[in-house]
Design goal:
- It is built from 16 helices and eleven strands.
- It is α+β, with helices and mostly antiparallel strands.
- The strands form three sheets. It has a five-stranded antiparallel sheet, with helices on both faces.
- About 15% of the residues have low confidence.
Length: about 425
């Protein structure tokens, strides 16, 4: 998955995997179709005309069925936002009773509702049911099912995460409905991993913005090719993007900038580590192979006795229920705009997604924390997302930098703030 796009006067965007919705109630839409009228007599001309009409009606009916699914998915998404898992399951039953076949998005919304409503058993049943219907639940379906089980059934959550990790690279996220709510033409429809022929811009001028780390590196490396194909991209040094993506090199980079104290303390060996601490891959997302470790023996087991560098990072664990994710629009290190989301979880020592979210809130960033971010991003331009926690003394500890669009901006940020950020991007560059 790759980028997003935008044009004036309204921003246009392209991320991958989109879906839509019909602005009418699905039951009312279904009532418009009834049984075919009986044919009273056969006439060759009338038969030919009827045959053509039936063919057209079949095409229209197929389109209508897709519209019904989309309409129901809108309802299911509403259930998910309100944690109404019973309502979601009832709506799913209604779809089947009326002959409307749920799709992957339908199951995603239902599983999300179960996760928010703490109905882990139903979340697991839905995941199994989706596979039995020859659908392929994606990383987001698994993510919500894992989080639904993480507290009550950590063993089940571990099994699901192991299954998910066996798939290899994560597929493109589906953000179409949320992006459409921005009201500025940003969409998630470009499935380009940064290799091979670059896609042609659908409109001019049109922005291409990455939403995965590896694609962010490829976009930076192929800026010339992308501009030649009609895309607008932010100029940034590919080496800087690659450094920020890597959790080990990011900390070394911060050290060179004089802000080492604002990143987790790293341990060069399991013997010198202070436990509990965090063991994670230098490169990766979605909590892949990330663990809270409590002894040198556990580190040796997980790394199979191998060296920590360059694959692994063993670092300080900052305990606490609160975690922050800040999306910033940056121009040569200057923070032009930002949006910040605070998450509260139900544990002090955890690795997401093996933790239950209690709440999230849109909050500001203190000036001293912004100053640290400016230093870390002094050679960067574009949109990036920082993950951090606060130590017991209130100081910031940045544990991750993603130089790309993140899910927090899409799902948690107020839509008018997200729109303002994209409009500033379009105005500045």
């Amino acid at each position: 998955m790759g980028p997003c796009a935008a044009t004036r006067p309204a921003l246009r965007g392209a991320f991958g995997g989109s879906w839509g919705g019909v602005h009418r109630h699905p039951r009312l839409a279904l009532s418009a179709f009834g049984p075919p009228l009986p044919l009273q007599a056969w006439d060759p001309l009338k038969a030919f005309t009827l045959e053509r009409d039936v063919e057209s009606d079949m095409l229209l009916a197929n389109e209508a069925v897709g519209s019904y699914v989309q309409s129901y998915n809108v309802m299911l998404t509403d259930h998910a936002w309100t944690a109404d898992w019973q309502g979601a399951l009832e709506t799913l039953q209604d779809m089947r009773a009326l002959g409307v076949t749920p799709d992957t998005t339908s199951y995603f919304a239902c599983i999300c509702a179960c996760r928010r409503g703490r109905a882990w058993e139903n979340a697991l049943d839905l995941l199994t049911d989706a596979w039995s219907k020859d659908l392929e639940p994606d990383i987001e379906c698994y993510g919500h099912a894992i989080r639904a089980c993480s507290k009550e059934q950590p063993g089940e959550a571990a099994k699901l995460l192991k299954e998910l990790r066996s798939w290899g690279p994560a597929p493109a996220p589906r953000w179409a409905r949320q992006l459409k709510q921005y009201g500025c033409g940003v969409v998630n429809s470009i499935d380009w991993q940064g290799m091979g022929t670059v896609p042609t811009s659908p409109a001019r001028p049109c922005w291409l913005l990455p939403n995965q780390d590896q694609v962010a590196i490829r976009v930076a490396e192929r800026q010339g090719d992308l501009r030649h194909a009609g895309w607008k991209v932010v100029w940034v040094d590919p080496e800087v993007v690659s450094t920020l993506c890597n959790k080990a090199s990011m900390i070394e980079y911060a050290k060179s900038k004089g802000i080492e104290a604002s990143t987790p303390r790293c341990y060069q060996s399991s013997e010198e580590a202070v436990y509990p601490c965090i063991l994670k891959p230098a490169v990766g997302t979605f909590g892949k192979d990330t663990h809270v470790v409590r002894s040198a023996e556990e580190v040796e087991h997980l790394t199979r006795g191998g060296d920590l560098q360059p694959k692994w990072v063993l670092q300080e664990l900052v305990a606490g229920r609160l975690e922050y994710s800040t999306t910033l629009l940056v121009l040569n290190g200057e923070v032009v705009d930002y949006v910040n989301t605070m998450y509260e979880y139900d544990g002090e020592e955890y690795v997401w997604p093996f933790v239950q979210e209690v709440r999230h809130e849109y909050v500001s960033v203190p000036h001293d924390h912004l100053d640290v971010m400016r230093v870390l991003l002094s050679e960067f331009s574009g949109i990036c997302c920082l993950g951090y926690k606060l130590r017991s003394d209130g100081s910031i500890c940045i544990f991750e930098v993603n130089p790309r669009i993140g899910g927090d901006l899409v799902f948690e940020c107020p839509k008018n703030r997200a729109r303002a950020l994209f409009e500033k991007l379009d105005f500045m560059f």
